[in-house]
Design brief:
globular, mainly beta, Immunoglobulin-like, 5-stranded antiparallel sheet
Length: 169
């Protein structure tokens, strides 16, 4: 990367670095459990598994600190080649009372909740295949965290079997 600045005044340069840890024993853990997060994926049996139904369940565990979490964010990493358009994500979010916002990015869905309660809350959404890609996302993850206290989190890895092979594309 080469950055050249000319003239007078101020300049700001920002670099984003992102990495993933695939081994549970190498992951940083919060000092106590704050959230419970469960993700289940079911691939369709028709049209070459072109649709994936996702059931996401969340729960606040630190009820001795607070009866509910603060504003919370759930980031769900999409399988390679799959996506959800923003208008469809907005439609799903309209039907969930505690969801305040959703962002359908190219590689993930980001759900923002007003709060998460001590009662297990599950919701369902569906992503569709946009590109025929096989075995590009061997390990994927999802994380839920308090938006203003990211240390209060729950991270899960590889929540669905990697079922797409080049034979069924």
């Amino acid at each position: 990367m080469i950055v050249i600045g000319r003239g007078a005044g101020q300049a700001v340069l920002q670099l984003k670095v992102q990495y993933g840890v695939d081994w549970e024993e190498l992951m940083d853990r919060p000092r106590r459990p704050y959230f419970d997060l469960y993700i289940e994926e079911s691939y369709s049996h028709y049209k070459n598994k072109s649709r994936v139904g996702v059931e996401a369940c969340i729960k606040w565990l630190a009820i001795d600190e607070s009866p509910t979490s603060g504003t919370a964010t759930l980031e769900y990493e999409l399988p390679s080649g799959y996506g959800l358009i923003q208008s469809e994500a907005d439609q799903v979010a309209k039907n969930i009372s505690i969801v305040s916002d959703v962002l359908a990015a190219a590689d993930r869905l980001v759900w923002t909740f007003d709060r998460v309660t001590a009662d297990r809350f599950c919701f369902h959404f569906e992503v569709r295949r946009w590109f025929p890609v096989a075995n590009m996302t061997m390990y994927r993850s999802a994380i839920i965290y308090e938006s203003h206290s990211p240390g209060k989190q729950k991270h899960v890895h590889q929540f669905g079997p990697n079922q797409i092979t080049s034979c069924i594309l």
